[in-house]
């Protein structure tokens, strides 16, 4: 409950700050006041993502964490144009084997399509990285290669949607499919969380 209150307080603070910053007043020769509205999505911006995640394997591919896993993580993105950005992320997921957690770290390329009238931005992304802490999983059990690996390479692609309460604070949800280097390890992930923009 305290975490929820803290997140809502943070979002409110960012919303208030952006609302104040966005109301630029212009005076013409007749001294009329014209408010300048800040777009929901900036041409250049940093983003901090705080998210929860749910991962599930395809039928017959339940070796990294069972048939499903819950988790969460952090991400940092930078949009160097209005539509294109890069991001890094880290996620932790419950691991069935040994009661441990599975880590995932990746780099993403985002392409978004802002709709400022509704403060919405559908986006697509591709990326790659690694899955960590697989050392307790006997690879021989599921891909006939033998041995075990602490890190497995992965690649992924997905789609998402972001909604902004203000130019500084919003929510996002996205889904992706991840292909892992060893056989029978592919899985899908759905994430949802808070996105703060600077």
What does the model show?
- The chain is mainly beta and 198 residues long.
- The protein has helices at residues 2-22, 140-143; strands at 24-27, 33-36, 45-57, 68-79, 84-94, 101-112, 120-132, 151-166, 169-180, 187-197.
- Strands 3-4-5-6-7-8-9-10 form an eight-stranded antiparallel beta barrel.
- The longest helix is centred in the first third of the chain and has 21 residues, at 2-22.
- 27% of the residues are buried.
- Mean pLDDT is 81; it is low at 15-27 and 138-144.
Low-pLDDT stretches are 15-27, 138-144
Structural class: mainly beta
Strand order, sheet with most strands:
3-4-5-6-7-8-9-10
The number of distinct β-strands equals 10
Q: Describe the oligomeric state of these chains in a short phrase.
A: single chain
What coarse outline follows from CA principal-axis ratios? elongated
- Largest sheet composition: 8 strands, antiparallel, barrel
Q: Nearest-angstrom radius of gyration?
A: 20 Å
* Count of DSSP H/I helices: 2
Classify the beta-strand content into a percent band.
over 45%
Termini Cα gap:
26 Å
Helix content percent band: 10-25%
Order of helices and strands: HEEEEEEEHEEE
Task: Indicate the mean pLDDT.
Answer: 81
Which properties best describe this structure?
two-stranded antiparallel sheet, mainly beta, eight-stranded antiparallel beta barrel, 198 residues, 2 helices, elongated
